[in-house]
Amino acid sequence: MKAEVITLDASNAGSVELDDAVFALEPRADILQRMVRYQLSKRQAGTHKAKARSEVSGPNKKIYKQKGTGQARHGNDKPPQFRGGGRTAGPVPRSHAHDLPKKVRALALKHALSVKAKSDALVVLDKAEVAEPKTAQLRGKFAGLGLSNALIIDGAALQDNFALAARNIPNVDVLPVQGINVYDILRREKLVLTRAALEALEERFK
Questions:
Q1: Average pLDDT score over the chain
Q2: What pTM value is reported for the model?
Q3: Can you tell me the distance from the alpha carbon of 109 to that of 115, in angstroms, rounded to the nearest whole number?
Q4: CA Rg, the chain, in Å?
């Protein structure tokens, strides 16, 4: 399939051929859901913690005599049924990450790219470069291209001026091609790929 290439000034810069094996798949929601869940689970902090009865501070003195009170037998006030006692089977620090096959992850990225191509939300940019790191100027260029909510993927390295100018624009993310991922693609309305990014993706999926 063909795609038109534009510049930041909204002028035509020719066209490119997109690989149908990457950009023309029939999107599968189940694969995308698995990948998004994999990404979000992997980045969870997992620092939640509740104290067990052995970790609660306080004296270990027997709270009342063993017999004659008509109450249950207790050694101290740390069991979970007491106010301030430990929690039974409470959360402990752990990793929420789980495994997902490498082939499934690669396929999910292809499906995410196909989603944007199929919904006409894919923009091919000639170069992501500006002469000066001016946020206002770049915001004006994005407005001319209709990019109010977009993920911009460049080649192996971002131009410093472009990265500096774009970082304060809300709802616009800029990443090198190594950082492309399914979650960021799906959470933005438009996906912008430069020529350098397309070449790197073709090399990646060979």
A1: 96
A2: 0.85
A3: 10
A4: 27
CA distance 44 to 42: 6
Instruction: List Cβ neighbours of 69 (8 Å cut-off, separation of 6 or more).
Output: none
CB neighbours of residue 120 within 10 Å: 8
| Element spanning 36, H or E | helix 29-42
CA 134, CA 178: separation in Å to the nearest integer? 25
Q: Are 166 and 147 in the same domain? A: yes
Give me 200's structure tokens.
């790197």
Pairing of strands 12-17, 2-6: antiparallel
**What is the per-residue pLDDT across 9-39, written as a single tens digit (0 to 9) for each?**
999 999 999 999 999 999 999 999 999 999 9
Q: What is the CATH number of the domain that holds 158?
A: 3.40.1370.10
Q: Based on the fold, state whether residues 152 and 171 are members of the same structural domain.
A: yes
